[in-house]
Design goal:
The chain has 161 residues and is an alpha/beta fold. It is built from four helices and ten strands, in the order ββαβαββαβαββββ. An eight-stranded mixed beta sheet has the order 5-4-3-6-1-7-10-9, sandwiched between helices. Strand 3, helix 2 and strand 4 form a beta-alpha-beta unit. It is globular and about 45 Å long. InterPro entries: DHFR (IPR012259), DHFR-like_dom_sf (IPR024072), DHFR_CS (IPR017925), DHFR_dom (IPR001796).
Length: 161
């Protein structure tokens, strides 16, 4: 089984506000695209709707929702933890949010790709607490700050110990 979480968060674990990112960081978007291209992405309904309820090119979209009648054009819809875990048995499953999906799948994930933004933002959605003792940082790369990427940030990769 192979499951990776990918997300960006501020220093207070904020990951969203009003179903959108509270920052603009094009280099993080490029990192996200590079890491998810050609893979299956699992997301909750709100995350799916946050980017226009349409699939991102070059990736398979899997939308998880409790609504049994929900349809998502261009994506596969699932409703249970068991269905999500089945997808992780068939190659790497990239979990892209939101917080309820991360919380539910946290016991099963084996790799974390975190963009840590060294700022504080207003937000209403947070990444769940994780037990740091269960994880080992195997790579940390400082992001490039410039006029289009105005914050200090770094790309961190963790594996479960």
């Amino acid at each position: 089984m192979s499951m990776t979480f990918i997300w960006a968060m501020d220093r207070n674990r904020v990951i969203g506000r009003n179903n959108a990112l509270p920052w603009r960081l094009p280099r993080d978007m490029a990192f996200f695209k590079e890491q998810t291209m050609g893979k299956k992405m699992l997301m909750g309904r709100k995350t799916w709707e946050s980017f226009g309820a349409k699939p991102l090119p070059g990736r398979t979209s899997i939308v998880m929702t409790r609504d049994p009648g929900y349809t998502a054009a261009g994506a596969q819809v699932i409703h249970t933890l068991e269905e999500a875990l089945e997808h992780a048995k068939e190659g790497e499953l990239m979990v892209i949010g939101g917080s309820e999906i991360y919380r539910m799948l946290l016991p099963y994930v084996d790799r974390l790709l975190i963009t840590k933004i060294e700022e504080s933002f207003e937000g209403d959605t947070y990444f769940p607490e994780i037990d740091e003792s269960e994880w080992e940082c195997i790579q940390e790369v400082q992001g490039i700050r410039d006029e289009k990427n105005p914050y200090d940030y770094r790309f961190c990769t963790y594996i479960r110990r």
